[in-house]
Amino acid sequence: MRRAIGSALALTVACALLSGCAGGLSEEGEALTPEQAEQLANARFQLSTLDAFVVEISVGEADDVEHLAARVTVDPADHVAWGTLSRGPEKLAVDTDIIMSPALYATGDDGAWQAQEWSGEAATLPIVFSLSTDRPENASLLRQSDARFLGTEDDLDVFRLPSEAGDGSAMSRLWLDGNHISRLDTTTGALSIEIDRDADPAPRPDAVDELAQ
Question: Whole-model pTM?
Answer without folding.
Answer: 0.84
